[in-house]
Amino acid sequence: MPEYLDLKDKVVLLTGGANGIGAATVRAFEAQGARVFFCDLDKSAGQKLERELRNSRFSRVDLTNERQILRWIEQVRKAAPAIHILVNNAAIDPRIPLDELATDRLDEIYALNLRPYFICARECAPHMPAGQSSIVNLSSITFHTGAIRMSAYVATKAGIIGFTRSLARELGPKGIRVNTVSPGWVMTDRQLREYVDAEARRLIQGSQCIPDLLQPADLAEVILFLASDASRAVTGQEILADRGWAHS
Prior knowledge:
By secondary structure, this protein is of the alpha/beta class.
């Protein structure tokens, strides 16, 4: 993994950090010497990761509850003088055919996958130092590939790309960069457990330019790049981290 000296002692706020891409990213920032504050609903996994690391702090937060988000960010603000990096990562990706997608379930998906991105950015931006700060939003290549039975999920991921483009314009004069990472199909424990069978592996390896399966750590490295000064010329952009699945 490259060494980003500018990330040492930076304060990182990350959602959905107990498992998968989030946990790999927490570990990656910790390895760079950053101070990481991460949240998740999975208390057991979050506390286990916190015990594994030296400079990262876990909080159990329901991101569909605005009061809990505000309380968490206020706690971070009391512990740290500034917030340099925000990684909006938490999401759910249920497979639901359109004729089975109840409105209540649709609202739940939006409430977790999109709404907290706005809230976290709104609350963190005033405390992000000019020229030293970055927001990284996680979208998905499903926006480009149009995965079936995932219309609600894909719609939220499309919203994240639009949110990134607009917010980069709005926060750019304040010296805050905003970018999106759109992962391909990443081999997290949950994906392997619930969705990745032999047929799925054949689809992935036949769709990617490079057939190697994506791992959470692969995404963490892209997120680190966008958080660091190495990407200081990059804002308002979407990076497809998918081994070439959705390239045009």
